Structure prediction request, 205 residues.
Amino acid sequence: MISPETLGIDVSRETCARLEQHLALLRKWNPRINLVSRSTLEDASLRHLRDSAQLVTLAPAPLKHWVDLGSGGGFPGLVVAILLAERDPACRVTMIESDTRKATFLRTVLRETGIAAQVLAQRIEEAAPQNADVVSARALAPLPKLLAFAQRHLHPDGTGLFPKGESWGKELDDARMEWQFSCTPHTSTTNATAVVLEIGDLAHV
Prediction:
């Protein structure tokens, strides 16, 4: 069962139940459309839910609009939407996912859990600029390309939150050849060699 201890964040039983629904639907749909690696499903509470939930604890406040890029199976987008429905219900959440089957999955989870969020079944670079307070993306692209996606959809004073694996230092060096930005790396709560990069003041060199 999902619990606040599992997530590393204090939430209600109703929120835990919604996250359980998300995982149940993920397991049901995954064989058909490969939302996540099958090997990660057994430990999905840690590998996917907690890994996504930590982004909410790092987000600035107050929030008006959170945009998740390449949302896929809903990590972190759906998790963010479910958590913010309790913690910051005034914040809008938008997920951009170009794969129409995955976008259908995202909308199904939103409908089943009763969460209000928007799903745009469009390419990130073609969707209208979203002017978001926070842009997130997980396992989507190397950081230089990710920052190009983020700049399109981020408010000038907004924050990017990007989980990265142990090669994050090299990605940071590569990105600084093309971009100017501030960066605070936060050690991941699920993997001591991984981080969440908190990016601000983004500008192209």
Observations:
- The two ends are 47 Å apart (CA to CA).
- The chain has one domain: 4-204.
- The chain has a mean pLDDT of 92.
- The first strand starts at residue 65 and ends at 69.
